[in-house]
Amino acid sequence: GYGVGKSKNKDSMFETHYKGFKNVGIPVGVYWYSCAYTEEEAIIEANKVLEYVKGKQIELPIFIDVEDEHNINASGCARENQVTIGKEKLTKVVEAFCKEIEKNGYYVGIYASTYWLNTRLDMNILEKYDIWVAHWWVSKPTYNGKYGVWQYSSTGRVNGINGNVDLDYVYKDYPTLIKNN
After folding, report:
1. What pTM, to 2 d.p., does this model score?
2. Hey, which end of the chain has fewer CB within 10 Å, N or C?
């Protein structure tokens, strides 16, 4: 959450989805929407993720989403966001999160839109991490770096789920990569 207290909440459906995917043999990964704008906050967020996945079998990466641009002038909101801190500082925030996750034995990656990857992060520093690029309604993302996952739509449909879901192409065999590492 991006309030002044910045709650770090687990999705209310996390446990249900985890059990459901496990019951039908679908590999599980983690997506974390970050509001961290300091390295210290990033480490706190990473440790919260580690708390949530403790004892669980995770076969896909733990991805950090860095695209927070909440209204810093709104009542009850933090006075900085991931846009206001700048590229250099945001890159350090992402790197701190990723290092903390890796230090604990998990495969980590970065989720962001093409725009954020191209303009808000120093990908020369972060290139060692896998990328999940979001770029909808195009035949190919305009992000020029390497990526393992491409989110190509936000209007997919899945039986049993009400409403739209995101759709992705996954180009890497993450369960095998993670098992072998």
Report:
1. 0.90
2. C
pLDDT tens column, 85-137: 789 999 999 999 999 999 999 999 999 999 999 999 999 999 999 999 999 99
Element containing residue 154 per DSSP (H, E): strand 149-156
- Residue 159 CA to residue 172 CA, distance in Å, equals 25
| 152 CB-side CA count, 13 A | 12
Average pLDDT of the residues in 47-54: 96
d(CA 70, CA 19): 32
Can you read off the two tokens belonging to residue 148? 């393992």
User: What's the one-letter identity of residue 98?
Assistant: C
Task: Give me the amino acid identity at 45.
Answer: E
